[in-house]
Backbone:
């Protein structure tokens, strides 16, 4: 597609349930990133995929968080046993490396844990 | 941890005035970028400046970079109400590194 697509756009879940967030990057973009943004805050890096290299998972806040990417296509971010502090907007972005250009962001998934 | 720190945290100006936002960072960088975010959703890339560049223009935007002071500024000239948004600076340390974002500046342009 023309842009980065994220689904669902909004998700309300009960505390303790697992959720799966999806990101479809721009075709041909080799790099894919997940960020988290709490209300009124900046972007917190979660995980970075670059081609076939091992992902940079250094930003994942706990072992309840995991992400996968198949080749250079779709990525899913999974949060297990959700907690209220997981409530945030989860943003996905993709870019073409190594031109070092800007990221293209999706519109995000707003996750609310009740 | 935050690499970029923007200031001021919030800025309110009248339409037609210029808006200047600053960003400081801590470690050596490869590129610095500015993004705009409306309504807490996806960010839009505005401009990228490389570490060997000092100034760059794009329409009403002017970005400067001072690597000796580890700082950058974003100037929006002749501001419009539609420029109301949050603005973030972001840095990377190489072609294969991730972007690290600052906390953002909230710009309000009064009509």
Residues:
């Amino acid at each position: 597609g023309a842009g980065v697509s994220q689904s669902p756009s909004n998700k309300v879940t009960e505390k303790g349930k697992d959720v799966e967030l999806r990101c479809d990057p721009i075709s041909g973009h080799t790099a894919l990133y997940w960020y988290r943004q709490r209300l009124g805050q900046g972007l917190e890096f979660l995980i970075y995929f670059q081609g076939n290299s091992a992902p940079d998972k250094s930003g994942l806040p706990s072992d309840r968080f995991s992400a996968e990417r198949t080749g250079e296509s779709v990525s899913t971010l999974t949060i297990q046993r959700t907690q209220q502090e997981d409530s945030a907007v989860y943003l996905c972005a993709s870019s073409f490396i190594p031109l070092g250009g800007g990221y293209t962001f999706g519109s995000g998934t707003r996750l609310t844990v009740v | 941890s935050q690499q970029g720190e923007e200031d001021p945290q919030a800025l309110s100006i009248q339409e037609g005035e210029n808006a200047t936002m600053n960003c400081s960072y801590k470690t050596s960088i490869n590129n610095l970028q500015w993004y705009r975010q409306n309504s807490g959703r996806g960010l839009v890339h505005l401009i990228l400046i490389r570490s060997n560049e000092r100034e760059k223009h794009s329409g009403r935007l002017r970005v400067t970079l001072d690597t000796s002071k580890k700082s950058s500024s974003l100037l929006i000239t002749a501001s419009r109400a539609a420029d109301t948004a949050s603005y973030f600076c972001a840095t990377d340390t190489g072609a294969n590194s991730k972007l690290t974002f600052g906390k953002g500046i909230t710009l309000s342009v009064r009509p």
Notes: The mean pLDDT of chain B is 91. The two ends of chain B are 36 Å apart (CA to CA). Chain B is about 0% helix and 55% strand. Chain B touches chain A through 25 residues (CB under 8 Å).
